[in-house]
Amino acid sequence: MIKKFQDTIAEEIEKLSVELSLPPAELYDPIRYTLAMGGKRIRPLLVMMGCDLFGGKTDDAIAPALAVELFHNFTLVHDDIMDNAPLRRNKVTVHSKWNTPTAILSGDVMMVKAYQLLCRSKLPPHVFDSVLSVFNDMAIKVCEGQQWDVNYEQLHRISIPQYFKMIELKTAVLLATCLKIGALIGGAGKEDAKNIYEFGKNTGIAFQLQDDLLDVYGDEEKFGKQKGGDILSNKKTFLLLKAMDIASSNQYLKEELEQWMTLPPTPELRSQPSLSARLSGERGAKDAAEKIEAVTRIYDFANIKKITEEEINSYHTKAVESFEKVYVSAEKKKVLLDFTSMLLKREV
Amino acid sequence: MIKKFQDTIAEEIEKLSVELSLPPAELYDPIRYTLAMGGKRIRPLLVMMGCDLFGGKTDDAIAPALAVELFHNFTLVHDDIMDNAPLRRNKVTVHSKWNTPTAILSGDVMMVKAYQLLCRSKLPPHVFDSVLSVFNDMAIKVCEGQQWDVNYEQLHRISIPQYFKMIELKTAVLLATCLKIGALIGGAGKEDAKNIYEFGKNTGIAFQLQDDLLDVYGDEEKFGKQKGGDILSNKKTFLLLKAMDIASSNQYLKEELEQWMTLPPTPELRSQPSLSARLSGERGAKDAAEKIEAVTRIYDFANIKKITEEEINSYHTKAVESFEKVYVSAEKKKVLLDFTSMLLKREV
């Protein structure tokens, strides 16, 4: 089932890409380039699965599924400008490959195209209105989340509730909306749509926490990603904020952590395939490794791994509780539940 | 009638602005700042007038009217980043007052808000679908127009048809769409909606040509704008492109014009209230005045003023021809026709 949906999505994105072979090339090539980058395409898949969960015709969900993927890609292109990110999914970002005006404009067009795709779905008016309204609310929230993220970058410290609100807006709301859009297309009632949204939202938060955790405690070989990037870039992850909280009542720990955090961030290391290859010399590599080791030691001392895992479980449990309320057969539910569990374990 | 619409629009924008007093301030303040800049708010007015022309309830057109104004402001904020413009309507641009990430994001939110406002209009489904579809097509075209403009900035020369296509997409299509959206809400049929669109499009092109003309031949006191800004910034206006065309068969004129065009552009002069105040010294002011004078002399020699006026008349005539086909009483038509004529004469 999932494989079938994934194949459909890949085919449809390919078709869309051909359709977007238009002039001016500077506007449309970056869109096709971004679409071709791939990624896991989890968001359109969630639209399809949300629709299927309620026994809807998944063909009706294809155009909206493409819409959320385009919207997601729009956010990536604009976020990369704001973050000065040179790489994304190991490929050169749009504003680096072309330039900032082109990245702004092709991002803008992606957003409009997302709306155009939503309109392409031949949904009954009342369903279409709901889908559009949910999509609009999501789009606003994602922008708000990104703005909080940009704001928080400038702050020395933020609270853990601030962090949760930010990742909810920036990451979780889109995942929740994908499921809800699918559910609405599939014919879900108001209550079911609300519960599936809550399920998606809390799963999304758990997913982001897992992401924070894997950066420090992940299996490098398994995830193909250099560890410690968040530490090197002084990124305000749940792990760091929690460690800061704990350190606030321990003078030694506080000084130790703050000392490492005063080192200038090296954000460009995050998206690199090989850490050492990027460092200018032996000394840089040694410094970086030392920082990662030292901060990890603080995390270990403060029991951050366990605390984060408990937090992940707590959000996962909340998610499942909402999902249980959804009025659909256990058999139907299993597909989505297994998929999100696999996502959390990063087995997909 | 027009005054009543203008008052309604001003009130509704004020209400919207209050509604948008939200956190994060970095995201919403720039939107309210942009809305407060004012401008002539011609676009929302055209939506209202388009609706009224067909005897529609203009209350139904308010939300879509705000939507086009927000969309227009979104394009201004993003365009100003791309153009490195320090000022807009004599006020500091968003990216200069805040920063580029904030300008990108608040522009993005403006676009989403535009869609949200469209959805707020409680239109019958078939009208809403048409309005949304027309709006989407317009949004894509405006982005394409801006990309062509960005591309053409890099070229030494573009053809006159390329110029017309660019201003059609970048400027005229939005004006045409405003009228068409209003017409659809007012109950216009397909043929009438098409004709009103053509009327708006050709009026928009005439309007842009007039803008080009006034920069060189306008009455400074009347328009409160320093003349010659386009000449100083080497902007590829209709006047310059036509002069280049004519000069291509006149070696002396060609060399003279090219010599002036090789001077570095001084785009920041364009939006300044006082030219001389911006120039670093006597010498700069003298050079600028000399360039404006010399290029104007070339234009005079090549009869550019008359040629441009003929072109404006030709587009205006085309516009009026389409308008005549619209199946509405002459009395009703007069309001809109008088308004666009006033616009062209810059009396409004």
Entry keywords:
homodimer; mainly alpha; 2 domains; two-stranded antiparallel ribbon; 2 strands
How would you explain this protein's 3D organization?
The structure is a homodimer of 348-residue chains. Chain A has 348 residues and is mainly α. Chain A folds into two domains: 187 residues, Farnesyl Diphosphate Synthase (Orthogonal Bundle); 83 residues, no CATH class. Helices cover 75% and strands 1% of the residues of chain A. The first copy, chain A, has 17 helices and two strands. Chain A has a two-stranded antiparallel sheet with strand order 1-2. In chain A, a hairpin with a 2-residue loop joins strand 1 and strand 2. In chain A, helix 1 packs antiparallel against helix 2, helix 3 packs antiparallel against helix 17 and helix 9 packs antiparallel against helix 16. The radius of gyration of chain A is 21 Å and the shape is globular. About 2% of the residues of chain A have low confidence. The interface between A and B is medium-sized, with 35 and 35 residues.
Summary, kept brief:
The first copy, chain A, is mainly alpha-helical. Chain A has helices at 2-19, 25-36, 42-53, 62-82, 94-97, 100-120, 125-153, 160-186, 190-217, 220-223, 229-232, 238-247, 251-261, 275-278, 282-301, 304-325, 330-344; strands at residues 87-88, 91-92. The first copy, chain A, has two domains: 2-188, Farnesyl Diphosphate Synthase; 223-305, no CATH class.
Helical fraction of chain A: over 70%
Rough outline of chain A = globular
| Number of domains as seen in the coordinates of chain A | 2
Order of helices and strands of chain A: HHHHEEHHHHHHHHHHHHH
CATH topology tier name of the largest domain in chain A: Farnesyl Diphosphate Synthase
Look at the structure and give the mean pLDDT of chain A.
92
Low-confidence stretches of chain A: 267-273
Q: What would you report as the Rg of chain A, rounded to the nearest angstrom?
A: 21 Å
Number of helices of chain A: 17
Number of strands of chain A: 2
N-end to C-end Cα span of chain A: 14 Å
Task: Identify the biggest protein-protein contact and residues per side.
Answer: A-B, 35 and 35 residues
Structural class of chain A: mainly alpha
Which CATH top level class of the largest domain in chain A fits? Mainly Alpha
Fraction of residues in β-strands of chain A: under 5%
Give the assembly state of these chains. Answer: homodimer
Which superfamily, in CATH terms, is the homologous superfamily of the largest domain in chain A? Answer: Farnesyl Diphosphate Synthase
Largest sheet of chain A: 2 strands, antiparallel
CATH 2nd-level architecture of the largest domain in chain A:
Orthogonal Bundle
- Strand order, main sheet of chain A: write it out: 1-2
